[in-house]
Amino acid sequence: QLAESGGGLVLAGGSLTLSCEAFGRTLNSDGMGWFRQAPGKKREFVAGISRSTGRTYYEWPVKGRFTISGDNAKNTVYLQMDELKPEDTAIYYCVAGIGGRQSSGYDYWGQGTQVTVST
After folding, report:
1. Going by C-beta distance under 8 Å and a sequence separation of 6 or more, which residues neighbour residue 38?
2. Using an 8 Å Cβ cutoff, are 11 and 85 in contact?
3. What residues of the chain score a pLDDT lower than 50?
4. Who has the most CB within 10 Å: 11, 16, 51, 94?
């Protein structure tokens, strides 16, 4: 339902762009976004977007460094990550559903893509 790509290894201060293409039933979801989970830590919200209004919202650790955007013609959401820090290292999950900052707002989850930021 959600196909993620774009993870990898990058040096601190560098950039990566994650992509997430929606298929099937997820095409009916207005809210899309990204969560992440680092080893030994709780899963946390990163960024979200409304596909109908284009409104975006971010969690404070990434605000000003990450940008979420969408291309409805391609059913794809992007997460541009700049000024990456080692603490951004995590598995990043694309999500689709009603929206919001809580995991309960999303019915569909991607398989996850690893982002590793080294010093």
Report:
1. 87, 89, 90, 91
2. no
3. none
4. 94
